[in-house]
């Protein structure tokens, strides 16, 4: 794959060649160099990006300088953009919104209203139609730390004993915004938020629509198993999460300014790491999310 090359110049989209680099870890991740996604996206580069996502699940495009509008335009090439639950009255949260450690006065803080991104999750699994891909663009970073981790849920499922796979077959997981807020220690969901995003069920083991691979589908948004006593369901989910987030299944991304990271929510969990002085240094990333399909 490292030999894949797109000159792009003949398409009027990019001047430098876009090349797929080596795999970033055994758990996934690959880098594209030589691309400027602020320019019109050429069909070959789009194909390279989608192929890299299919094969490696996490894609890193270095040295990007994108306005929020440019990120919006680029993201639209991959599908319908999703809004964000119960944040409509906050001007910081548009369709391209900022993921930050800042308070309402713009100062770094450890006292975050929303802490869910510091827990393992897959984006918007509390939607009846959850997310396909997410993009984060690094705008401001601490001097060190603030990493993001990705857990490969295909590898995690493959490594399960056959007896466990049989036990999981047909089970459905209950995902909700309310459960997520409770599990992450965030501000409790309001009644309006609960009405906007009521609990939904998805298969605990989903099939990736592009590869046919089976993957575990859970995370912090998952609060229980349909038809199973609450304590038993939570225990099973905790057991699977501990298994799926072992080091062998995890890629840790150490951010560089200008990184654009794109990942496939259909086969990954992710979380931010609070391994930096959150009350001292600013961490600002711009986020877009593309709507997916109903899991099966």
Write up what this structure looks like.
The protein has helices at 43-56, 68-75, 153-158, 162-168, 177-184, 191-196, 230-244; strands at residues 5-6, 18-23, 30-33, 58-61, 97-100, 131-140, 148-152, 172-175, 200-203, 205-207, 214-216, 222-225, 250-253, 260-264, 268-272, 284-291. By secondary structure, it is of the alpha+beta class. It has one domain: Clavaminate synthase-like (Double-stranded beta-helix), CATH 3.60.130. The protein has an eight-stranded mixed sheet, covered by helices on one side. The chain starts with a strand and ends in a 5-residue tail after the last strand. Mean pLDDT is 91; it is low at 7-14 and 86-90.
Query: Helical stretch count?
Result: 7
Which series of helices and strands comes N to C?
EEEHEHEEEHHEHHEEEEHEEEE
Number of strand elements: 16
Instruction: Please write the CATH class name.
Output: Alpha Beta
Globally, the shape reads: globular
Largest sheet: 8 strands, mixed
Return the CATH topology: Double-stranded beta-helix
- Helical fraction: 10-25%
Mean pLDDT: 91
Number of domains: 1
**Approximately what portion of the residues adopt beta-strand conformation?**
25-35%
CATH architecture level-2 label: 4-Layer Sandwich
Name the structural class. Answer: alpha+beta
Low-confidence segments, given as residue ranges, are 7-14, 86-90
The fourth-level CATH homologous superfamily is: Clavaminate synthase-like
